[in-house]
Every structure is written in structure tokens, then in C-alpha cells.
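Inverse folding, one chain.
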């Protein structure tokens, strides 16, 4: 049966309606592509979860593309709340040290990006994404359906589903299925894809409400508190909404923690450092801290994204943000495949590009974790007097230094590169340093195209998204266009969206280094050169995944 004659219920079926699944649906809808999201829970954020709440710079750049930055700011952390990390023995205890991070109101966006990171609890971010997806009118979100199995052939995928309430079975057929169903992904398991890595510990988190928390002046202004005892860092106390909802995470056991027998109230009182502060426990959840990656990110027409493809320690907040990065890659690739101008090589490129990034980010998160569970030299941390003060000062200095990359991770967020991708044409230049904190802007192929401000107030990033963009600088701008006309014709010949943008600002030309720079819809550089390609059709076929 020819694919064009096949019956499909939806162009893209997304299993899992968490932040990554909803972000993919929103990105597809922004591109004019319909999809169906299947979620086993009865609704979005139907349970108040103690999960991610940090949206990093690259994620905020995606929000900028979708036009929801202001919406995120409205439902997120108060703009005037500091982002400090405070190291202490308890919230009403001894001060140990502080990493100062200004509030969103006082913090400027880094020079390398038009957006600054935001705090937004997942129980607010997920419903926001769901609302924006619904407003687009191209996505069917179906709640209360559990994935039961799949079958795929050369033309598409059929997913079997079970209604969580009635037990009734149904199926949905789509050209492509994307699994966004979490670390325990049933889709990944059904495909027999191994999930390799290591367990770091078993932890337990609780969401609690404290209406009035007035800590001593020296300890005020913390977004999170890393709490230290003689045995080491034992707890993280984090503000979830900047007001009255907090998350307490009890860290570090090689044995599973049972929420039915674990005395979380005692841990909360220990973290507070006094017994007279009233609190309400909203939820207690045990979880595994792990560093894992799927052995492959796609099998046939089924792809993995988010936690279904990779897990990280939350130290650094790279889990959900790496998943949104998967969406940046997948959205344009799926649209290209569905529109017919993308080649089958895009699926392999997704695996080649995103898997190393996830492994890199997860390793960085594990390094952060190991930095704050180091328990050497803490014996005197609780005592009064000169010996205790000296111990606390030493620990504070060490943590402030060793955890710098956890709170300052622009290099992780923007500095990833797609080395070895078959749809990126190397120009032979040396890679820039890959440092967790320090990001070096570069237009080297495979890297994120650098941000710079245009004369009309837009960022160069605002030029990218819908299709391929050829940036022309310097002499290429004054040229009559003949040098790039053949490349434009080659793109149009296969239906690949293509636009030429002339930039006459010398500072941006210097940043991009070459006269001609071809940028993909996801904002990654695909090719650059001072001269037009020798065979424009070959270049077009490479970057769209159709070159053999």
C-alpha cells in the first residue's frame, strides 16, 4: 500500500502529556502540524508533583519562538524573589555560605541570548503548555488512556491503548510515534531498547506548605537551602512558588525509602531547625536519582524524547531542559518528513545529535551531585565557637566554588554541538571549549547560531524556525545574488523552505565568521563558507537528510 493512500488518525502520535510531550505538540502546532497527545492521567498536572521548576536559557528561547515568554513570567516565580542558594545547618540554624543569584527583575539576560532563565513550577508550566496547545487548535489531547503496545510497518505505527477507567481498548495509527512517557517508558520497553547507566541513590521528596516562614536575616532570600550536618549534605529545601510552597528532598540512600514508614515530619522539623513552625504536607514521593540513556533514540518510525530517552540527577535542572532540547530537534524534522521534503536520514540524525548531548548533560548533573554530597571534614559543623565557625567557613567556601557550574550552566544550555551528524557539513574548524559554565558563541557547523541584535530590535534567533535561512554577510550582500541563486533553486526544487537574509552589520559578520551561513529551522548551523557550494543540490540533500 502506498503511504499516501494509507489511513492515519493523526500525523504524529505523542505518548505522554508531560512538559516534553506538550512542548512537542506546541512546536508542531506552531509549525502548522496536527498531532494527538495521549496521557494516562485524567488531566494535565492533576497531581501536585515535586518536580522541575527551572526553565533555562535555551528553553526560554523556545518559549520566545512560541510567543509564551510573558505567560511563563506571569505564572512563574515572583520577579523580585532572589535566586540565591544558601548553605546552612538549618533554616533556623548556622549560616555556612551563599551563592548569590539576582532575582529575575534584577538579572539581565546573558549577552549570548535574548532570554534569561526563569523559575516556573511544573504544575504551572504544564497547564500553560496545554492551554497554548489547545489555543492553536491542531492538537487532540486525550486523557485517561494508557499505552498497551504498538505495531509498525514501513508506512506507519499503530498504538494500542486502554482506557484507564473503563478498560476499553482502542488504537491510533500515525506515520510517526514519539514516546514522552517518562523514565519507565512503556514504549521504550516494548521496543526492547536498553536503558543503560547507573543508579546514584534513592531519594524522597515532599511538597509542603509553610504560610509564614521568617528565617533569621542572615539566612533570608534563599531560593534553595542545602542543609549540612556532621554526616554531610543531607537535605535540599527549595522554594517552589516563591511564596509558601516548598520542596524538601532527603538525599542519599542506597536502599529504597518507603514513604509509608519514613518519618518525613521529623526531617522537615530537622531542616527547619525548630519545632514551632507550622507546616502542611501536601505530597510525599520516593524517586530514583539516576544517570541513564537509551541505547537508541529511535526504532523505525518510533522515537524517544525526554525522560523516556535519558535521565539526569536534578542537580543543575538539566532533565526537563534537555527534553525541551529534544523537541527543538524533533519538531522541524517531523514537519519536514510529513511535508515530504525531509529524508529518512533525519531520523538517524536525531539519534546522532541528541543522544551525546543528553549523556553530556547527565554527566554534568552527576558531577554537581557528587560535589554537594562530599561528606569529608564536616564533623564540627554544628558546634558553637571558633572551631565550628572555622569549619562552616571552610565548607561554605568549598561549596560555593565546587557548585558554581550547578547554578551557572550557560555552557551546558547553549554550548552543545552536533558533532558527527550526517546532516551537518563540517568546515574543518576546531571546536570551541565545552565548559559547563562558560559559553563561547560560534557559528561553527553543528552549533547553535549565535544571538546578536539586529537594527530593527530583533535577535538573529528570531530569523530562524520556519525553514532554512541563508545568512549573507559582507561581500555576499553587495553581490547581485547570482552566487546563491543556484542554492535557492536547489532548495525550491525539492520543496525545502528556504529564505535568504542579508545582514550588513560588521559586528554580526565577525561573529558568524564566514560570508555565507546556512541555519536549520532549529537554529543550528548546518553549513558555512566564504564561497557558494560547488554542488548546491548535494548540499541541500545533505541538510535535509536525503543524501546517499
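Residues assigned per position:
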Amino acid at each position: 500500500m502506498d503511504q499516501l493512500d494509507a489511513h492515519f488518525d493523526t500525523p504524529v502520535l505523542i505518548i505522554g502529556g508531560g512538559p516534553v510531550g506538550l512542548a512537542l505538540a506546541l512546536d508542531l502546532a506552531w509549525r502548522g502540524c496536527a498531532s494527538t497527545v495521549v496521557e494516562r492521567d485524567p488531566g494535565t498536572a492533576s497531581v501536585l508533583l515535586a518536580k522541575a521548576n527551572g526553565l533555562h536559557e535555551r528553553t526560554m528561547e523556545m518559549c520566545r519562538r512560541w510567543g509564551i515568554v510573558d505567560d511563563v513570567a506571569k505564572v512563574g516565580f515572583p520577579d523580585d524573589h532572589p535566586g540565591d542558594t544558601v548553605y546552612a545547618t538549618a533554616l533556623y540554624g548556622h549560616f555556612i555560605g551563599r551563592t548569590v543569584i539576582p532575582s529575575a527583575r534584577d538579572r539581565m539576560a546573558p549577552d549570548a541570548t535574548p532570554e534569561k532563565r526563569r523559575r516556573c513550577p511544573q504544575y504551572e508550566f504544564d497547564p500553560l503548555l496545554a492551554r497554548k496547545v489547545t489555543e492553536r487548535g491542531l492538537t487532540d489531547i486525550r486523557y485517561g488512556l494508557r499505552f498497551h503496545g504498538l505495531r509498525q510497518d514501513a508506512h506507519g505505527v499503530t498504538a494500542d491503548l486502554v482506557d484507564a477507567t473503563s478498560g476499553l481498548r482502542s488504537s491510533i495509527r500515525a506515520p510517526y510515534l514519539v514516546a514522552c512517557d517518562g523514565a519507565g517508558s512503556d514504549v521504550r520497553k516494548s521496543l526492547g531498547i536498553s536503558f543503560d547507566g547507573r543508579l546514584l541513590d534513592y531519594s524522597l521528596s515532599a511538597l509542603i506548605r509553610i504560610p509564614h516562614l521568617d528565617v533569621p536575616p542572615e539566612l533570608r532570600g534563599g531560593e534553595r537551602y542545602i542543609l549540612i550536618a556532621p554526616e554531610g549534605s543531607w537535605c535540599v529545601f527549595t522554594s517552589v512558588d516563591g511564596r509558601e510552597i516548598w520542596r524538601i528532598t532527603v538525599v542519599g540512600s542506597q536502599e529504597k525509602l518507603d514513604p509509608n514508614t519514613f518519618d518525613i515530619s521529623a526531617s522537615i522539623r530537622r531542616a527547619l531547625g525548630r519545632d514551632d513552625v507550622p507546616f502542611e504536607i501536601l505530597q510525599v514521593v520516593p524517586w530514583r536519582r539516576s544517570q541513564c540513556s537509551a541505547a537508541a533514540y529511535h526504532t523505525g518510525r518510533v522515537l524517544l524524547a525526554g525522560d523516556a530517552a535519558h535521565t539526569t540527577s536534578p542537580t543543575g535542572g538539566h532533565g526537563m531542559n534537555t527534553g525541551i532540547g529534544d523537541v527543538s530537534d524533533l519538531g522541524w524534522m517531523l514537519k519536514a518528513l510529513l511535508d515530504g521534503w525531509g529524508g529518512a536520514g533525519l531520523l538517524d540524525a536525531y539519534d546522532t545529535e541528541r543522544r551525546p548531548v543528553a549523556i553530556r548533560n547527565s554527566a554534568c548533573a552527576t558531577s554537581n551531585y557528587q560535589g554537594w554530597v562530599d561528606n569529608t571534614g564536616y564533623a564540627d559543623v554544628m558546634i558553637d565557637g571558633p572551631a565550628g565557625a572555622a569549619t562552616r567557613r571552610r565548607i561554605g567556601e568549598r561549596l560555593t566554588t565546587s557548585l558554581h557550574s550547578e547554578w551557572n550552566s550557560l555552557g551546558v544550555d547553549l554550548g552543545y554541538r552536533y558533532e558527527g551528524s550526517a546532516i551537518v557539513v563540517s568546515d574543518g574548524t576546531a571546536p570551541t571549549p565545552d565548559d559547563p559554565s562558560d559559553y563561547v558563541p560560534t557559528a561553527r557547523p553543528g552549533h547553535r547560531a549565535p544571538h546578536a541584535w539586529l537594527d530593527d530590535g530583533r535577535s538573529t534567533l528570531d530569523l530562524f524556525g520556519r525553514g532554512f535561512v541563508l545568512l549573507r554577510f559582507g561581500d555576499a550582500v553587495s553581490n547581485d545574488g547570482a552566487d546563491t541563486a543556484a542554492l535557492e533553486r536547489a532548495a525550491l526544487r525539492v520543496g525545502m523552505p528556504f529564505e535568504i537574509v542579508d545582514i550588513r552589520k560588521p559586528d554580526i559578520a565577525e561573529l558568524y565568521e564566514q560570508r555565507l551561513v546556512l541555519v536549520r529551522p532549529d537554529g543550528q548551523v548546518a553549513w558555512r563558507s566564504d564561497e557558494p557550494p560547488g554542488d548546491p543540490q548535494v548540499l541541500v540533500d545533505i541538510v535535509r537528510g536525503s543524501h546517499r
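The chain has a mean pLDDT of 93. Residues 3-75+115-194+293-368 form a domain with the FAD/NAD(P)-binding domain fold (CATH 3.50.50.60).
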